Amino acid sequence: MFEPFLEFAFMRRALVGCLALSLSAPPLGVFLVLRRLSLIGDALGHAILPGVAFAVAVFGLSLLAMSVGGVLAGLAVVLGAGLAARGTALREDASLAGFYLVALALGVAIVSASGGRIDLMALLFGAVLAVDDPALLFMAGTASVTLIALAVMWRPLVIETFDPGFLRAARGRGAVWHLGFLALVVLNLVAAFHALGTLMAVGLMMLPATAARFWSASLGGQVVAAALLAMVASATGLTLSFHADVPTGPAIVLTAGALWLVSLAAGPQGSLLAQVLRRPHYAG
Question: Which of these CATH numbers, 3.30.870.10, 2.40.170.20, 1.10.3470.10, 3.40.30.10, describes 3-199?
């Protein structure tokens, strides 16, 4: 199990990058689940595609250009959906769906117009084993910024998640915290894109977060469980990918999916097994 990481530097870089993402992305996913915004992660993962594709078309495979382009595209979709929801009768999830579909189509159009200079499969599914030192530093920096930001905004974010009406009554600037939280989601999806692509990036964020619900009833416990499950999925997926010669990104996400299914079936909190054991038995 440990041989690939001891022998090959690219495997070590991939592992460290995925572990860094496992510390920051799944805790954000926990909040998305609690706020009933689970599919927003998937929408934002698609929304960054036009920014990344445009950056590649203009500047080539530049880490800085792709990161800036992805962040700007994701933030544009977030801000556009938020303004549309607050200025019209459209709900935020519906406006976000419209914006992200337009962004996805625009990204594919940019790739098509590039005349084959952009590898669409690499953009969509990533290349974990091609993570270089600059990408690794970006992932680690993103994880550090996210954890510090979560520590700063933890209390108002929790209140805004469970009782937004109270935060509005207390003039707690709930919209500011909400937009700041979504900005962190975009930043983590862009960081994960460099390893997993725009389609697979959201898997490492959301699958451990949904699985964590079956391991702890408290918010703090779910955050810790989500990060641990993501780290297990990253290490196991990389190992399976190396030995079974399967694509690395899908291997990691499939491993996270397997952990989610196990949690759904037999986790100690609210799983199928837990519900059966809690069901009262009456003597005949």
Answer: 1.10.3470.10
